[in-house]
Amino acid sequence: MTKVLISADLEGISGVVHGTETSPEGYDYARSRALMTAEVNAAVAGVLDGDPGAEVWVADAHGPFRNILPEELDRRALLARGKPRPFGMLGGLGPDTDAVLFVGYHARAGSGPAVLAHTMNGVNLDVRVGGRSLGEIGLNAAMAGYFGAPVVLLSGDDVACAEFGELVPGAATVEVKRALAQAAAVALHPEEARERLRTAAAGAVVRRAEIAPFTVPGPVEVEIDLALPHTVDLATLIPGVTRAAGGRTIAYTAADYAEAYRVALLVGQLAGITPA
């Protein structure tokens, strides 16, 4: 049986453009959750159109990882919900995963104009792996690739689609909106976005053997530029993490990509700690 994992973020969903729409405290968060759930359902339906016997896992991968409405999710899918958990945005990933889809993804920190661009949090200014700047798209694609699973599709704005296309040539993209600024875009109607996503997901799963996984061989050198000095102080308490030149950059060398990814996740959690 084919196992397909759908990792779903919120910033790249059609119609979503502002931070108040992506936060549980925001005035329009309830609508965004519904839009996100509907786009995920379109991807689930597409995967099963292409491979009716597939086992479909959905990883809720935005913020608290508790955004998708469980009762509204396609009942044929399994839902990975809540945090912290192994592999973060890729909850449910493992050596048995055959293909991964990214739904509602956004561009990396520093991209622009790009809707709600960032990398893991608002503190990471840049994450470089082997000298190459990677956002959540690249970091997660490489984690999937560690297990030999190709990312066969991404949906999001035009900048996210272009970023993904450079990393995974030949994979499918679904541009659901075109960025005008960090908090502005021209978007498809949600129903149109879902129809395109379902069609693309079906084709992407059928073609999964044609898409090469994005891999980063070990040892892996990582540098992270952090906006807050106290996050640098906390991160250097992790064995093997050092303060690099410039004061706001940390560096470490991991034996393999899975270790590199776990440390990056931990640094991301440290970013949420404020000085006592």
TrEMBL record:
Top-rank lineage group of the source organism: Bacteria
Stored Gene3D superfamilies: Dipeptide transport protein
Extent of the signal sequence: none
InterPro entries (UniProt xref): DppA_N (IPR027476), Peptidase_M55 (IPR007035), Peptidase_M55_sf (IPR036177)
Pfam families: Peptidase_M55
Record's protein name: M55 family metallopeptidase
